[in-house]
Amino acid sequence: VPVERALVVGGGIAGMSTAIVLRKLGIDVDLIDRDPAWRTYGAGITISSPTLRAFEQLGILEDVLRSGYSGHGIRVCDVDGNALREIADPPSFRGSGGILRPELHRILSGKVVDLGTEVRLGVTCDAIAEREDGTVATFSDGRTGTYDLVVGADGLYSSTRRLVFPDAPVPEYTGQTVWRLIAERPEDVDRRHFFLGGPTKVGLSPVSESLLYVFALETCERGAPISEADAVDRFRALLDGYGGIIGKIRDGITSESSIVVRPLEAFSFSGAWFRGRTVLVGDAAHPTTPQLASGAGMAVEDAIVLGQALSSASTVDDALATFMHRRGLRCRTVVENSLHIGRLEQSGAPSAEQTQLVADSLEILAQPI
Ligand SMILES: Cc1cc2nc3c(=O)[nH]c(=O)nc-3n(C[C@H](O)[C@H](O)[C@H](O)COP(=O)(O)OP(=O)(O)OC[C@H]3O[C@@H](n4cnc5c(N)ncnc54)[C@H](O)[C@@H]3O)c2cc1C
Question: How far, CA to CA in Å, does 155 sit from each of 110, 124, 203?
Answer without folding.
Answer: 20, 13, 24
